[in-house]
C-alpha cells in the first residue's frame, strides 16, 4: 500500500498537468490543446498546470488502497473456492470488480478534483481545498452532486481494471 501510494504521488507529477489541459479542452472544444496549454501558462503559470495536484493525490491514494487489496482478496477467495490459483481471465474479473468498487467509493473525491481543476482562477475552488470543494458540492447539490458521473466512472475503471490487471496477471504467469 505504501509503494502504491508513493507511486501515485510521483505519477501525479505527470498526470495532473495533462489532465488539467484535457479537462479544459473538454469544456472548451473550440480551443486547441496547445492554445489551452499556453493560455494556462500565461495566466496562471506552472502552478495552473498543477492545480488539483493535491486533490488528485487525495483521490488516487484511497483508490489504490481500496482497489489492490480488494483485487488480491477476491483472487484469494476465488482460488480457495475452486481449489487452485485463478486464471488470468479470472484475475481480470476480480480486477474489474475491485476497480469498479474503488471508483464508486472515491467518486466524491474525483468530483472535487474536477471542480478544482476547472475552477476559474482566483475563485475559492481554485485554491484547491478539497474539503471546501466537497462542502460546496454537498450544500448546493447534496449526495447526487457528490456522486455525479459515478456510473460512467465505474464502467470505465472496471474495464480498465479488467484489461490492466488481467494483462498484468497473464504477463506475471508467463514470466514465472
TrEMBL record:
**Which compartment or compartments is the protein found in?**
Membrane
UniProt topology in membrane: Multi-pass membrane protein
Give a GO biological-process term: mitochondrial S-adenosyl-L-methionine transmembrane transport
Recorded hits in InterPro entries, A to Z, give: MCP_dom_sf, MCP_transmembrane
GO terms (molecular function) for this protein are:
S-adenosyl-L-methionine:S-adenosyl-L-homocysteine antiporter activity
Ranges: Solcar repeats = 1-77, 86-174
**Coiled-coil stretches:** none
Report which reactions are catalysed by this protein: S-adenosyl-L-homocysteine(out) + S-adenosyl-L-methionine(in) = S-adenosyl-L-homocysteine(in) + S-adenosyl-L-methionine(out)
Q: Tell me one Pfam family matched here.
A: Mito_carr
Alphabetized SUPFAM superfamilies for the sequence: Mitochondrial carrier
- Any one cellular-component term (Gene Ontology): mitochondrial inner membrane
Enumerate the UniProt keywords alphabetically. Answer: Membrane, Repeat, Transmembrane, Transmembrane helix, Transport
Similarity comment: family membership: Belongs to the mitochondrial carrier (TC 2.A.29) family.
Described by its record, this protein's role is as follows: Mitochondrial S-adenosyl-L-methionine/S-adenosyl-L-homocysteine antiporter. Mediates the exchange of cytosolic S-adenosyl-L-methionine, the predominant methyl-group donor for macromolecule methylation processes, for mitochondrial S-adenosylhomocysteine(SAH), a by-product of methylation reactions.
**The protein's name in its UniProt record:** Mitochondrial S-adenosylmethionine carrier protein
Q: Which gene encodes it?
A: SLC25A26
Amino acid at each position: 500500500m505504501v509503494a502504491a501510494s508513493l507511486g501515485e504521488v510521483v505519477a501525479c507529477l505527470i498526470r495532473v498537468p495533462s489532465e488539467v489541459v484535457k479537462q479544459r479542452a473538454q469544456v472548451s472544444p473550440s480551443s486547441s490543446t496547445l492554445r489551452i496549454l499556453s493560455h494556462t501558462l500565461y495566466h496562471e503559470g506552472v502552478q495552473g498546470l498543477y492545480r488539483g495536484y493535491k486533490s488528485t493525490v487525495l483521490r488516487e491514494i484511497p483508490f489504490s488502497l481500496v482497489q489492490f487489496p480488494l483485487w488480491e482478496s477476491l483472487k484469494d477467495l476465488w482460488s480457495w473456492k475452486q481449489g487452485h490459483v485463478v486464471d488470468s481471465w479470472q484475475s481480470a474479473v476480480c480486477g474489474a470488480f475491485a476497480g469498479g468498487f474503488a471508483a464508486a467509493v472515491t467518486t466524491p473525491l474525483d468530483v472535487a478534483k474536477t471542480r478544482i481543476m476547472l475552477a476559474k482562477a482566483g475563485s475559492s475552488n481554485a485554491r484547491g481545498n478539497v474539503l471546501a470543494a466537497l462542502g460546496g458540492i454537498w450544500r448546493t447539490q447534496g449526495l447526487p452532486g457528490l456522486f455525479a458521473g459515478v456510473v460512467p466512472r465505474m464502467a470505465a475503471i472496471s474495464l480498465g481494471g479488467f484489461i490492466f490487471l488481467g494483462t498484468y496477471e497473464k504477463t506475471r504467469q508467463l514470466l514465472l
